[in-house]
Amino acid sequence: MIARYTRPVMKALWSDQTRYERWLTVEILAVEAWEALGQIPRGVAERLRASARVDAERVAEYEARYHHDVLAFISAVAETVAPDDAKYIHFGLTSTDVVDTALASLVTEALDIVCQDVVELRRAVRERALNTRHVPVVGRTHGMHAEPTSHGLKWALWWLELGRDLERLRRARDTMAVMKISGAVGNYANLPPFIEEYVGQRMGLTPAPLSTQVLQRDRHAEVVAALAILAGTLDKMATEIRLSQRTEVGELEEPFSSGQRGSSAMPHKKNPIRCEQISGLSRLMRGYVVPALEDMPLWYERDISHSSVERVLLPDATTLADYLVTQMTRIVKGLVIHEDRMRQNLAMTGGLVFSGKVLLALVERGMSRDEAYDVVQRHAMAASQDPRQSFRERLMQDPDVQRRLSAEELERLFDVEPYLREVDRIFERIGIEQGEEEEGRR
């Protein structure tokens, strides 16, 4: 991932140096396991731990000659230790025993970072939900005014969805937290399963029940799919914020820092560039899913068609997810909510958003549904075309309506309070008031 979208924590995690150091961890633990079995002289692992080092630049020099990164790594490490100890590095192992085990360790660590990012975002979203639960806003379907609703319900909905995202990420993390040290075709021909069990326990990874030369790539595909779904949630949030910042709507506004400029040509502009960036980068994240799925079928016990893909795919996907979530957290915390504009927009159609309440009231007072619908629709359409007389005024002058509803009863139908009446109950039902950060079942 380019530096523009990479936070330092992910840059360090996915560096060549970190990768080789993780390989070295696997190698030394394997030596320890061989020692425990009495197959390698005691003290080798201790000396390797004290002296073995790996330098990414030196590995690159060897790789330019070998065209094989693991052999280059072994040669670079061997230079830093005694020859009698060097011969036990990679003893009984195949390259992918080291590579896949280390990769699983790195991916799970990256997912832990992303999961914590999501927890922080959920906290910010929850705070917005609680603070705006009784703020009325016009609900929109098909982009058109529908009925009044609570602005806080929008945030609560996102809070729940982020909870499901968090669950998916944690499941994917558990699926990925496996390793293999089972040899060239996965049958332990040159090493016993104890080596695998020993290394896995000390790295916090579970040995795969069965592997070939590689771990099966459905695990990696699940990780990428979970990250893509998370990006979809962020895109959903960003899209609504972008729509709500439009000049004609003006209900939400991205943070706009002091000294920031919105346009090279139009000094008045305050554009939702952060949310647009999230929407754009979410497209990139979704694009990672196809190559992840295509990495699943490999020839027989393995080929390396997946390897080149994963060198880009897994670091980029996790790095991008980390960036997207932290960026959205900054947006949520700094977002300007224009409650006055929400009320203005709610009133701009002269009460048309209450048409459903009027329809139900007329049916309750004896009109057939079709007749009531025709009456309400006729006055709604007329008010839309000629706003000099409001929807409510037209209804009050209709004899059929007057026979069934008093002026006071009709007036109450244009009250926004009933649309907010059940909000507290909904909040209680989803557990958001108690701050259940782990909640994500719904």
**Total count of helical runs of at least 4 residues:** 20
Mean pLDDT: 95
Q: Could you tell me the strand content as a percent range? A: under 5%
Compute the number of strand runs.
6
Distance between the ends: 33 Å
CATH topology of the largest domain: Fumarase C, Chain A, domain 2
Unreliable stretches (pLDDT < 50, length at least 5) are: 437-442
Helix proportion of residues, in percent?
55-70%
Oligomer state equals: single chain
How many domains? The number is 3
Largest sheet: 2 strands, antiparallel
The CATH first-level class of the largest domain comes to Mainly Alpha
How are the strands of the biggest sheet laid out side by side? Answer: 1-2
CATH architecture of the largest domain: Up-down Bundle
Overall SS class:
mainly alpha
Q: Write down the Rg.
A: 30 Å
